[in-house]
Every structure is written in C-alpha cells, then in structure tokens.
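Assess this one:
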Amino acid sequence: MHDLLDLKGKWEVMIVWIRSITRKACSRPPHEIQAKRWIEWVEPNLNDFIAPAGMEILVKQLYLARDVTIDGPCSGSFTTIHNIPCYYHIRILKEFNCKVTKHDFHKHRHFVRPVSAPQDGVAPYVVQTRGRP
C-alpha cells in the first residue's frame, strides 16, 4: 500500500535508472558490436544511435555479407521481421560504396525515437463529450 507521492518518487528513480543504463549502453558498447570494427561497412558513429540489441543482429548480418560462399536470392523476410538490413542489402550498399546508416533501421531500434503518434508519446486530442464536463 503506497500513496501517490511515494509512487511518484519510485517512478522518478526508475526513470533516472533507465536513462543511466541507456547512456552507458550508448557510450560504451561491447567490443563485438562496436561500429568502428566495421568501418568499411557502417558509419563509425552508429553505436550512438542504435540500441545494442539491434547492433548485435546487424553484426551477424555483416559476417554473412563478408562471407562470399553464402549466396542466393533475397526473400526480404529478414528485413521485414527484424527491421534491419539483411546481408544481401548490405552487399548491395557495399557495391555502390555506401554504408549502413541509422536511417536503414526502424525507429524501434533507435535510442532516441521520433515522436509522431499518440502511442509514441504525443498527448492525444481532448474530445468534447456531451453532457456535463
């Protein structure tokens, strides 16, 4: 049994804790998923924008893109499911001397997500109903 002031305090502590974890994950990613290791394939500052879970999946695709023995047509299902470029798309970017950028990822994979809809954080419109307010 907590009062509202106690719950508000706990909520604020939780938000500060989540922000510190996000800041730490952004500033010091594990060595395996550092974008600087893949400088010829991705932007060097990609870790500043993409969450570590998304970078882990991308690194697996980068290993597949680098392996020339793996070849075949792209079905598009990986990109549809994970919202991350597949190894086939990464190879095409490499052919055109382009790199994987933060714009190739769905906004769900970003640290800072753009706000564009009520479910993303924008306050909904106030609807006037009939009767006494």
Summary: The mean pLDDT is 82. The helical segments are 4-27, 52-66, 77-82, 87-95. Residues 31-112 form one domain. The two ends are 31 Å apart (CA to CA).
